[in-house]
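Human:
Take a look at this sequence-structure pair and walk me through the C-alpha coordinates.
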Amino acid sequence: MSPTLVRHQLPHSGSIRCDDPPAPDRSRRTRDWAEIQERMLLPLYEAAYDRLGIGPGTRLLGLGCGSGLALLLAAARGAQVSGVDADESRLELARERLTPEGGPEHTRLVSGGLEAAAPGDAAFNVVTAFHPVGCVSTVEGLTASLTAATALAERGSAVVLGGWGPVERCATAGVLGIAQQPADPRGDCAGGWPSGRDDLEELADRAGLRPDGSGRVACPFGYADPASAVRGLLSTGLFDAALEVTEERQVEKELAEALHPYQRADGTVWMPNVFRYLIARTR
Protein backbone atom coordinates (compact mmCIF):
# COMPACT_ATOMS: atom_id res chain seq x y z
CA MET A 1 0.00 0.00 0.00
CA SER A 2 1.29 3.46 -0.93
CA PRO A 3 -1.20 5.98 0.42
CA THR A 4 -1.22 9.48 -1.01
CA LEU A 5 -2.48 12.34 1.16
CA VAL A 6 -2.86 15.70 -0.53
CA ARG A 7 -3.88 19.08 0.81
CA HIS A 8 -6.87 20.27 -1.23
CA GLN A 9 -9.37 23.02 -0.42
CA LEU A 10 -12.76 21.44 0.22
CA PRO A 11 -16.02 22.99 1.42
CA HIS A 12 -16.96 23.49 5.06
CA SER A 13 -18.63 20.46 6.58
CA GLY A 14 -18.71 18.16 9.55
CA SER A 15 -15.27 16.70 8.99
CA ILE A 16 -13.31 19.58 7.48
CA ARG A 17 -12.96 23.31 7.98
CA CYS A 18 -12.35 26.32 5.76
CA ASP A 19 -11.59 28.99 8.37
CA ASP A 20 -8.86 27.72 10.67
CA PRO A 21 -8.93 28.75 14.34
CA PRO A 22 -5.67 29.88 16.01
CA ALA A 23 -2.93 27.22 16.05
CA PRO A 24 -3.39 25.97 19.66
CA ASP A 25 -7.16 25.57 19.16
CA ARG A 26 -6.65 23.95 15.77
CA SER A 27 -4.24 21.38 17.22
CA ARG A 28 -6.54 20.64 20.16
CA ARG A 29 -9.61 20.25 17.99
CA THR A 30 -7.73 18.06 15.52
CA ARG A 31 -6.82 15.68 18.36
CA ASP A 32 -10.37 15.79 19.70
CA TRP A 33 -11.69 14.90 16.24
CA ALA A 34 -9.31 11.95 15.90
CA GLU A 35 -9.62 10.69 19.48
CA ILE A 36 -13.29 11.37 20.24
CA GLN A 37 -15.50 12.17 17.28
CA GLU A 38 -14.24 10.49 14.12
CA ARG A 39 -15.03 6.96 15.31
CA MET A 40 -18.75 7.84 15.50
CA LEU A 41 -18.91 7.45 11.71
CA LEU A 42 -17.21 4.05 11.65
CA PRO A 43 -20.50 2.15 11.02
CA LEU A 44 -21.09 4.36 7.97
CA TYR A 45 -17.65 3.60 6.56
CA GLU A 46 -17.99 -0.14 7.17
CA ALA A 47 -21.47 -0.36 5.66
CA ALA A 48 -20.40 1.36 2.45
CA TYR A 49 -17.22 -0.71 2.17
CA ASP A 50 -19.13 -3.96 2.74
CA ARG A 51 -21.65 -3.04 0.09
CA LEU A 52 -18.96 -2.22 -2.48
CA GLY A 53 -16.66 -5.09 -1.58
CA ILE A 54 -13.68 -2.83 -0.94
CA GLY A 55 -10.46 -4.86 -1.05
CA PRO A 56 -7.45 -5.70 -3.22
CA GLY A 57 -7.86 -4.05 -6.59
CA THR A 58 -9.66 -1.03 -5.12
CA ARG A 59 -8.05 2.33 -5.85
CA LEU A 60 -9.86 4.69 -3.52
CA LEU A 61 -9.82 8.47 -3.28
CA GLY A 62 -11.22 9.94 -0.06
CA LEU A 63 -12.47 13.53 -0.34
CA GLY A 64 -12.33 15.26 3.03
CA CYS A 65 -10.36 12.34 4.46
CA GLY A 66 -9.75 14.12 7.77
CA SER A 67 -7.36 12.25 10.04
CA GLY A 68 -7.65 9.12 7.96
CA LEU A 69 -9.83 6.59 9.80
CA ALA A 70 -11.90 5.73 6.71
CA LEU A 71 -8.73 5.38 4.64
CA LEU A 72 -7.16 3.17 7.29
CA LEU A 73 -10.16 0.83 7.22
CA ALA A 74 -10.01 0.61 3.42
CA ALA A 75 -6.26 -0.02 3.48
CA ALA A 76 -6.75 -2.81 6.03
CA ARG A 77 -9.03 -4.48 3.47
CA GLY A 78 -6.24 -4.35 0.89
CA ALA A 79 -7.24 -1.20 -0.99
CA GLN A 80 -4.81 1.34 -2.40
CA VAL A 81 -5.85 4.64 -0.84
CA SER A 82 -5.35 8.34 -1.51
CA GLY A 83 -6.81 11.23 0.48
CA VAL A 84 -7.36 14.96 0.17
CA ASP A 85 -8.35 17.47 2.80
CA ALA A 86 -8.06 21.19 3.45
CA ASP A 87 -6.81 20.74 7.02
CA GLU A 88 -3.04 20.26 7.23
CA SER A 89 -3.12 19.13 10.86
CA ARG A 90 -5.64 16.38 10.12
CA LEU A 91 -3.59 15.23 7.15
CA GLU A 92 -0.56 14.95 9.41
CA LEU A 93 -2.49 12.62 11.70
CA ALA A 94 -3.64 10.63 8.69
CA ARG A 95 -0.02 10.16 7.65
CA GLU A 96 0.89 8.95 11.13
CA ARG A 97 -1.90 6.38 11.00
CA LEU A 98 -1.27 5.14 7.47
CA THR A 99 2.53 5.21 7.53
CA PRO A 100 3.65 4.77 11.15
CA GLU A 101 7.31 4.82 10.14
CA GLY A 102 6.75 8.32 8.77
CA GLY A 103 8.93 7.81 5.71
CA PRO A 104 8.32 10.44 3.02
CA GLU A 105 8.50 7.72 0.35
CA HIS A 106 5.23 6.25 1.60
CA THR A 107 3.05 9.33 1.46
CA ARG A 108 2.92 12.81 -0.05
CA LEU A 109 1.50 15.92 1.56
CA VAL A 110 1.19 18.32 -1.33
CA SER A 111 -0.56 21.65 -1.66
CA GLY A 112 -2.29 21.57 -5.02
CA GLY A 113 -5.04 20.11 -7.14
CA LEU A 114 -6.63 16.68 -7.03
CA GLU A 115 -4.37 15.54 -9.85
CA ALA A 116 -1.58 15.21 -7.27
CA ALA A 117 -3.55 12.38 -5.63
CA ALA A 118 -3.82 10.24 -8.78
CA PRO A 119 -2.53 6.67 -8.17
CA GLY A 120 0.19 6.55 -10.80
CA ASP A 121 -0.91 5.45 -14.26
CA ALA A 122 -4.15 3.84 -13.00
CA ALA A 123 -7.39 5.71 -12.44
CA PHE A 124 -9.43 5.59 -9.24
CA ASN A 125 -12.34 3.17 -9.16
CA VAL A 126 -13.92 4.36 -5.90
CA VAL A 127 -14.40 7.92 -4.64
CA THR A 128 -15.81 8.66 -1.17
CA ALA A 129 -17.23 11.85 0.34
CA PHE A 130 -18.43 10.67 3.73
CA HIS A 131 -18.77 14.04 5.47
CA PRO A 132 -22.43 15.13 5.86
CA VAL A 133 -23.81 17.47 3.23
CA GLY A 134 -26.77 19.82 3.15
CA CYS A 135 -25.44 23.34 3.64
CA VAL A 136 -25.52 25.46 0.52
CA SER A 137 -21.78 26.17 0.62
CA THR A 138 -21.06 22.49 1.14
CA VAL A 139 -23.15 21.39 -1.85
CA GLU A 140 -21.61 23.97 -4.16
CA GLY A 141 -18.06 23.13 -3.10
CA LEU A 142 -18.60 19.39 -3.14
CA THR A 143 -20.08 19.54 -6.64
CA ALA A 144 -16.87 21.10 -7.92
CA SER A 145 -14.69 18.67 -5.97
CA LEU A 146 -16.67 15.65 -7.15
CA THR A 147 -16.52 16.80 -10.75
CA ALA A 148 -12.74 17.12 -10.51
CA ALA A 149 -12.39 13.79 -8.69
CA THR A 150 -14.54 11.80 -11.07
CA ALA A 151 -12.48 13.09 -13.97
CA LEU A 152 -9.67 10.98 -12.45
CA ALA A 153 -11.86 7.90 -12.07
CA GLU A 154 -12.71 5.06 -14.41
CA ARG A 155 -16.06 5.07 -16.16
CA GLY A 156 -18.64 3.35 -13.95
CA SER A 157 -16.63 3.88 -10.77
CA ALA A 158 -18.49 3.98 -7.48
CA VAL A 159 -18.89 7.33 -5.70
CA VAL A 160 -20.07 7.20 -2.09
CA LEU A 161 -21.85 10.25 -0.65
CA GLY A 162 -22.69 10.46 3.04
CA GLY A 163 -25.22 12.54 4.95
CA TRP A 164 -27.42 12.82 8.01
CA GLY A 165 -30.62 10.82 8.12
CA PRO A 166 -34.11 12.17 8.81
CA VAL A 167 -34.18 14.81 11.53
CA GLU A 168 -36.68 12.80 13.57
CA ARG A 169 -34.22 9.91 13.74
CA CYS A 170 -31.18 11.97 14.77
CA ALA A 171 -30.99 12.93 18.42
CA THR A 172 -28.09 15.24 17.59
CA ALA A 173 -30.41 17.47 15.53
CA GLY A 174 -31.47 19.53 18.53
CA VAL A 175 -27.89 19.88 19.74
CA LEU A 176 -26.73 21.14 16.35
CA GLY A 177 -29.36 23.86 16.60
CA ILE A 178 -26.97 25.55 19.03
CA ALA A 179 -24.51 25.94 16.15
CA GLN A 180 -27.07 27.27 13.70
CA GLN A 181 -28.70 29.99 15.81
CA PRO A 182 -25.84 32.52 15.69
CA ALA A 183 -24.80 31.33 12.21
CA ASP A 184 -28.18 31.92 10.56
CA PRO A 185 -27.39 35.52 9.49
CA ARG A 186 -24.58 34.14 7.31
CA GLY A 187 -27.05 31.98 5.42
CA ASP A 188 -24.75 28.94 5.60
CA CYS A 189 -27.54 26.41 6.06
CA ALA A 190 -31.02 26.57 4.65
CA GLY A 191 -33.85 24.97 6.54
CA GLY A 192 -32.05 24.61 9.86
CA TRP A 193 -30.98 20.95 9.52
CA PRO A 194 -27.76 20.13 7.60
CA SER A 195 -29.34 17.49 5.37
CA GLY A 196 -32.60 17.09 3.48
CA ARG A 197 -34.38 13.99 2.22
CA ASP A 198 -33.02 14.17 -1.32
CA ASP A 199 -29.77 16.07 -0.75
CA LEU A 200 -27.52 13.20 -1.76
CA GLU A 201 -29.44 12.50 -4.95
CA GLU A 202 -29.45 16.20 -5.85
CA LEU A 203 -25.70 16.42 -5.25
CA ALA A 204 -25.10 13.36 -7.44
CA ASP A 205 -27.20 14.88 -10.21
CA ARG A 206 -25.33 18.18 -10.03
CA ALA A 207 -22.02 16.32 -10.29
CA GLY A 208 -23.21 14.32 -13.30
CA LEU A 209 -23.37 11.01 -11.42
CA ARG A 210 -25.87 8.16 -11.82
CA PRO A 211 -27.51 6.93 -8.54
CA ASP A 212 -27.04 3.20 -7.98
CA GLY A 213 -28.47 2.40 -4.55
CA SER A 214 -28.54 3.80 -1.04
CA GLY A 215 -28.70 2.72 2.57
CA ARG A 216 -29.17 3.85 6.16
CA VAL A 217 -26.85 3.14 9.06
CA ALA A 218 -27.19 3.64 12.81
CA CYS A 219 -24.37 5.93 13.96
CA PRO A 220 -24.98 6.73 17.63
CA PHE A 221 -22.84 9.42 19.19
CA GLY A 222 -21.59 8.09 22.52
CA TYR A 223 -19.26 9.89 24.94
CA ALA A 224 -17.68 9.08 28.29
CA ASP A 225 -19.03 12.28 29.85
CA PRO A 226 -20.54 15.68 28.91
CA ALA A 227 -17.12 17.34 28.70
CA SER A 228 -15.98 14.78 26.11
CA ALA A 229 -19.22 15.30 24.21
CA VAL A 230 -18.67 19.05 24.05
CA ARG A 231 -15.08 18.61 22.88
CA GLY A 232 -16.07 16.05 20.28
CA LEU A 233 -18.87 18.14 18.82
CA LEU A 234 -16.75 21.30 18.72
CA SER A 235 -14.10 19.36 16.78
CA THR A 236 -16.51 18.69 13.90
CA GLY A 237 -16.24 22.23 12.55
CA LEU A 238 -20.03 22.59 12.57
CA PHE A 239 -19.76 25.13 15.38
CA ASP A 240 -17.03 27.28 13.83
CA ALA A 241 -19.46 29.91 12.56
CA ALA A 242 -21.01 30.18 16.04
CA LEU A 243 -17.56 30.52 17.60
CA GLU A 244 -16.79 33.43 15.29
CA VAL A 245 -19.64 35.50 16.75
CA THR A 246 -19.93 34.07 20.29
CA GLU A 247 -17.42 33.42 23.06
CA GLU A 248 -16.29 29.80 23.24
CA ARG A 249 -17.35 29.53 26.89
CA GLN A 250 -20.88 30.54 25.96
CA VAL A 251 -21.05 28.00 23.13
CA GLU A 252 -19.73 25.29 25.47
CA LYS A 253 -22.29 26.23 28.13
CA GLU A 254 -25.19 26.07 25.69
CA LEU A 255 -23.90 22.79 24.28
CA ALA A 256 -23.70 21.25 27.74
CA GLU A 257 -27.29 22.30 28.45
CA ALA A 258 -28.49 20.86 25.13
CA LEU A 259 -26.74 17.56 25.92
CA HIS A 260 -28.32 17.20 29.35
CA PRO A 261 -31.35 15.15 28.15
CA TYR A 262 -28.97 12.60 26.65
CA GLN A 263 -26.85 12.08 29.77
CA ARG A 264 -27.40 8.68 31.36
CA ALA A 265 -27.27 7.70 35.02
CA ASP A 266 -23.63 6.57 34.75
CA GLY A 267 -22.62 10.00 33.39
CA THR A 268 -22.17 8.91 29.79
CA VAL A 269 -23.85 10.76 26.92
CA TRP A 270 -25.71 8.77 24.27
CA MET A 271 -27.43 10.19 21.18
CA PRO A 272 -28.93 7.74 18.65
CA ASN A 273 -28.55 8.89 15.04
CA VAL A 274 -29.19 7.49 11.58
CA PHE A 275 -26.88 8.38 8.72
CA ARG A 276 -27.53 7.85 5.05
CA TYR A 277 -25.29 6.98 2.15
CA LEU A 278 -25.78 7.02 -1.60
CA ILE A 279 -23.84 4.92 -4.08
CA ALA A 280 -23.53 6.69 -7.43
CA ARG A 281 -21.63 5.84 -10.59
CA THR A 282 -19.51 7.89 -12.93
CA ARG A 283 -20.82 8.11 -16.49
Summary: The longest strand covers residues 153-164. The chain is about 40% helix and 20% strand. The two ends are 28 Å apart (CA to CA).
